[in-house]
Design a protein that fits this description.
The structure is a single chain. This protein has 5 helices and 8 strands, in the order H-H-H-E-H-E-E-E-E-H-E-E-E. A 4-stranded mixed beta sheet has the order 1-4-3-2, covered by helices on one side. A 4-stranded mixed beta sheet has the order 5-8-7-6, with helices on one face. The chain folds into 2 domains: about 60 residues, no CATH class; about 110 residues, 2,3-Dihydroxybiphenyl 1,2-Dioxygenase, domain 1, CATH 3.10.180.10. By secondary structure, it is α/β, with parallel strands linked by helices. About 20% of the residues are buried. The protein is elongated and about 70 Å long. A hairpin with a 5-residue loop joins strand 7 and strand 8. It is about 30% helix and about 25% strand.
Length: about 200
């Protein structure tokens, strides 16, 4: 079987996995089994964007053309520049359940660029430099339970700005400062609006 035939056969097996069917390898195709195990594992990953980014990274390493454009989940992505990006990544994971999408180390140490997913949104961050110094930002995040996330944020090293409270615009909201100095307004939509616009 030619290399091209093997690639096409692998593609067919992956398509069968995606359809929920058994790829049914013949004895002469058993060397495809490790690749199918990887494909089966990737099949269960939580975000399509991760799979697309992984494919693009692998294509770039192989020197080939990109298989697919990078997925863009939102039009506006916050970018945080902090003094200790690794510490902030740990905080975002522990406080908000952030899933790390990528981390690019800076030569000589630190984080040159990182991306996380919090719910259906992305946040990007990096360590500050002389050219791009650290500076605090402010973000507003909606979560299913503001009280629980506030408690996790404090346990993860956040500093309280204010405890969860009902706001006149219909949110139950709390405020914290993360270890990088950024302000987070953690909210759950209550649906009860006290203030009516004119």
């Amino acid at each position: 079987m030619s290399e091209r035939d093997r690639i096409e056969r692998l593609d067919g097996c992956v398509s069968a996995l995606l359809a929920g069917d058994d790829p049914a390898l013949s004895p002469s195709e058993r060397d495809l089994l490790p690749l199918l195990r990887v494909a089966a594992h990737l099949l269960n990953l939580p975000r399509e964007a991760f799979a697309l980014q992984l494919r693009a990274d692998l294509d770039a390493r192989a020197g080939g053309p990109p298989s697919a454009p990078r997925a863009v989940a939102q039009a506006l992505v916050p970018y945080l520049v902090v003094s200790d990006a690794s510490k902030l990544l740990d905080f975002l994971r522990d406080a908000f359940g952030a899933a790390e999408i990528m981390r690019v180390p800076r030569p000589g140490g630190g984080v040159q660029h990182a991306e996380v997913a919090i719910g259906d949104a992305r946040v990007e961050l990096a360590d500050g430099t002389a050219e791009y110094p650290s500076r605090a930002g402010a973000l507003h995040v909606y979560v299913p339970d503001a009280d629980a996330v506030y408690a996790r944020a404090l346990a993860a090293g956040g500093e309280s700005l204010y405890a969860p409270v009902g706001q006149p615009y219909g949110d139950r909201e709390a405020g914290i400062r993360d270890p990088g100095g950024n302000l987070w307004f953690i909210a759950t939509r209550s649906g009860v609006t006290i203030y009516e616009p004119r």
